[in-house]
Design brief:
- With 309 residues, the chain is α+β, with helices and mostly antiparallel strands.
- It has two domains: 115 residues, no CATH class; 152 residues, 3-Layer(aba) Sandwich (Aminopeptidase), CATH 3.40.630.
- It has nine helices and twelve strands.
- Strands 1, 4, 5, 6, 7, 8, 9, 10, 11 and 12 form a ten-stranded mixed β-sheet that branches.
- α8 links the parallel β10 and β11.
- The longest helix has 21 residues.
- The radius of gyration is 22 Å and the shape is globular.
- The N terminus is likely disordered.
């Protein structure tokens, strides 16, 4: 009997199709632009709020050329502070543009600038241009979004039944509690940005939240609303990266969505910063319950660290 005949006798095991734990929607280029614009608007306002003495001391700046926006910080090697936010999003990028941006960062002494790209960025060979100049794909985040569909009245994420209700509560940050909020973020990220962060408290468009357990801050997240678009960020600890638990961030996310809808937001934008290839796990499940859909993966490009092989 031939081996072919033997193989025909083996039981056929049907392949299993993995079902993502969040709805995935193929968005248009216009929707992707709106998603990216929501984050860029937040960062433009964040930099506008920076105290002048702090910005000068840290070498902090943000620049634009039309719709293109990039950030620079000579003293803090943090991805958000040295990145090209939206190249190829609103108009096609060019090789000359890439070269000019890289020259800017070299002149500023920035060893690892970052470029964000997404499937709608133009031209499609933008990634090839970055790689040809020595930048490499360094992971990325899942872009998620939702509309203003109301949530159910009942809480989606209830507190641990073993923890008294009074011990776990979401509070909006006020000028009185701004230093506690800022200090918590700086401690988690090991950054010196408290003077900058506190300048955002009470600022138009911003809402900042702390989740407290027995009076101590255990998680934070912020919301910025501009022209009906709400961007969620400034979160700590980042679930799946800084902390194993996703539940605390989910409770904050629910409060942000409810308050954002009440404030008139029509589009909500957030990220899953610890993506899984199968689009499963608690981050995906939680955001799905909050009504978010996955739009696309945003890729991050930079040079490898100097000590890397």
């Amino acid at each position: 009997m031939s081996t072919a005949a033997l193989s025909e006798l083996q039981p056929v095991v049907p392949s299993q199709t993995h079902v993502p734990e969040i709805a995935i929607e193929e968005v248009s280029r216009d929707i992707s632009r709106a998603i990216e614009r929501a984050e860029v608007a937040a960062w433009l306002d964040i930099y506008e709020a920076a105290p002048a003495d702090f910005a000068a001391r840290q070498g902090l700046s943000i620049a634009s050329d039309g719709d293109l926006v990039w950030t620079t910080c000579a003293t803090i090697p943090f991805i958000h502070f040295n990145c090209v936010k939206n190249i190829g999003v609103h108009s096609p990028a060019s090789e000359a543009q890439v070269d000019a941006l890289l020259a800017h960062y070299r002149d500023a002494g920035i060893m690892r600038p970052w470029f964000y790209t997404n499937p709608h960025a133009e031209p499609s060979r933008l990634r090839c241009w970055l790689e040809a100049r020595g930048l490499q794909h360094q992971g990325g985040w899942e872009r998620i979004y939702r509309d203003a569909t109301p949530l159910a009245d009942e809480p989606l994420f209830r507190a641990d039944p073993l923890i008294p209700v009074d011990d776990l509560a979401v509070e909006e940050v006020t000028p009185h509690t701004a230093s506690d909020w800022a200090s918590f973020i700086d401690a988690k990220y090991r950054l010196p940005t408290s003077p900058w962060l506190t300048a955002l408290v009470g600022r138009k468009g911003w809402r900042h939240y702390m989740l407290k357990r027995k009076g101590a801050v255990v998680a934070v997240r912020s919301l910025f609303i501009s022209d009906g678009a709400a961007w969620s960020g400034i979160d700590a600890p980042v679930p799946g990266i800084m902390a194993p638990s996703f539940d605390l961030d989910a409770m904050l996310g629910e409060r942000l969505v409810r308050d954002g809808i009440a404030a008139g937001a029509k589009l909500f934008v957030a990220d899953i910063e610890a993506p899984h290839p199968d689009r499963d796990g608690p981050a995906y499940r939680n955001y799905d319950r909050l009504g978010f859909k996955l739009a696309y993966s945003r890729d991050h490009y930079s040079y490898l660290p100097a000590h890397s092989s």
